[in-house]
Amino acid sequence: MGPRVGFDATAAVRQAAGIGRYTRHLLRALIDRDDDLRYRVFYAAAGARHGRLPPGIPARALPLSDRLLNLVWHRWQLPLPVQALIGPFDLFHSPDFTLPPVAARPTVLTVHDLAFFREPDCAYPTLRHYLQHVVPRSIRRATRVIAVSESTRRDVLDLVDIAPDRVVTVHEAVDARFRPKPVEEARSAARRAGIGERYILSVGTLEPRKNYERLIDAFSMLVSRGVSQRLVIAGGFGWMYGPILERIEHLGLGERVTILQPDDDLLVALYNAADVFVYPSLYEGFGIPALEALACGAPVVASRTSSLPEVVGEAAILVEPRSIEDIASGIERVLASDDLRVRLSKCGPERARDFTWEEAADATAAVYLDALGG
């Protein structure tokens, strides 16, 4: 029998997007590998939705409230190790920034970004203070740290005192459902959603780090130059989303901007039918929406910051996210050139094929074996 891996799937059941999506896809790919690793999967039960777990994966629900989970177990390190709740294992993996108490076993921690240090104004003050306290301590405790990009790995080494050989880059990936579709099929789905056929798309939670206020200003600039497309923002409402909505109204764009929260099937169609996909984020640890857009063949305009150049490579137009004019010019450049759109649409899926969950699972399993010493 092979090594037993304790795996914390709390993010998979609590979060629909972001780290939740990463955890679900990685866990599915790990369990589907043909190897000797065995998994003890658990999640904190309060407010969680077991139905979000990949089908066929047994998992144990732990009776931990948000307060007990975040404050008492993670921050104060309540002397109740994971083993006491889920049984013995040989290695523990937390895919979501923080390590709970673990009794003397190799541990692996995934760090997705250090935005709470690099862009501190883009996080709730209380959450920022919590993460700034708990995450560096968890990084130092971990036997191995998985960074989801080289950019994130550099941030970890810059900001936390840890030996470089303990931090390994394992890229995130894109689900196979994100792929090119017949354009008319995608446009039909967009029409049924009330969007229409011609639009500029951006995807991500409405929050300051995603830089939507500057995107809306850039869109207003394009409207004044005669651009006919709508702006579609696909994402849930995060923290401090109010100024984003206020900016839309202040600029008189209420009839030209659509905000919605699509399911994955509609999201695939939206990527496929978009005239251009724009990802002007101020900071990303990886940037899965940009990779999803590439995989669907959408022409992509992305920020020239953090991990995004590493993810999109030569398959996108890069812009300075703090420059409204540069964002507008990048979008305008794509809209004005059929040749450029065709080139980007062809390059995107080719680039996305470099990032698969099977490869991510293989690399993660290799980190497990390294942490186990063999």
SSE arrangement:
Elements: E1 4-8, H1 10-14, H2 19-32, E2 38-44, E3 60-62, H3 66-75, H4 83-86, E4 91-94, E5 107-111, H5 115-118, H6 125-141, E6 144-147, H7 150-159, E7 167-169, H8 183-192, E8 199-203, H9 212-224, E9 230-234, H10 242-250, E10 257-260, H11 264-273, E11 276-279, H12 288-295, E12 300-303, H13 308-312, E13 317-319, H14 324-335, H15 338-352, H16 357-372
Parallel strand pairs: 1-2, 1-4, 2-3, 4-5, 5-6, 6-7, 8-9, 8-11, 9-10, 11-12, 12-13
Describe it.
With 374 residues, this protein is an alpha/beta fold. The protein has helices spanning 10-14, 19-32, 66-75, 83-86, 115-118, 125-141, 150-159, 183-192, 212-224, 242-250, 264-273, 288-295, 308-312, 324-335, 338-352, 357-372; strands at residues 4-8, 38-44, 60-62, 91-94, 107-111, 144-147, 167-169, 199-203, 230-234, 257-260, 276-279, 300-303, 317-319. A seven-stranded parallel sheet has the order 3-2-1-4-5-6-7, sandwiched between helices. Strands 10-9-8-11-12-13 form a six-stranded parallel sheet, sandwiched between helices. The model has no long low-confidence stretch (mean pLDDT 93).
